[in-house]
Amino acid sequence: MLRIEKLKHSYDGDAQISYPDWKVEEGNHAVILGNSGCGKTTLLHLIGGLMSPKEGTLEVAGENLGSKSDVKLDRFRGENIGIVFQRPHLIRSLSVKENLSLSQYLGRKKTDGRRLDEVLSRLGIKELANRKIHQISQGQAQRVSIARAVINSPKLLLADEPTASLDDENCKKVIDLLKSQAEETGATLIVATHDQRVKSEFKNQLSL
Q: 13 pLDDT exceeds 70?
């Protein structure tokens, strides 16, 4: 599912970040560990097709992302990758259900009301379907973010610091929720975090 070799990236004027070679097999769960500023979010964004690497090989689902144009990266991401960002980035003027329908549209999928209801039910937020984003709590918004990430049954599910502001009980719940959603859709799950509580939940670990 994921193969990284001699991968490097840099922002304009900043020092270059070099990443260790790494593999994650299809359907596996893995974690990227490291302190703030070490480059783990950048790596997650590279894997997610949100930016292109400067050097090296980055393959996702057999596709070399470094060779794709921005347009092709956008299309590939919409069709194959679901991302749970550290902040929800939901459209506040739309309802929960409309946010998910938009994700289906952007992922070049047909609007599937049954799939929407199924995902919301499994995440325990079906009753929020018609509420605007500003009418729900932060915890509920996080679940909506997970719903948006899995709505198109992606091959790869990425999560950036999903437990950073949670207590121990809710930390475990969110990781279990991400794992269960990945397993239900057959997705490979990769979590990027500095939260050491998450470390024991994953056998495949990349430390930066």
A: no
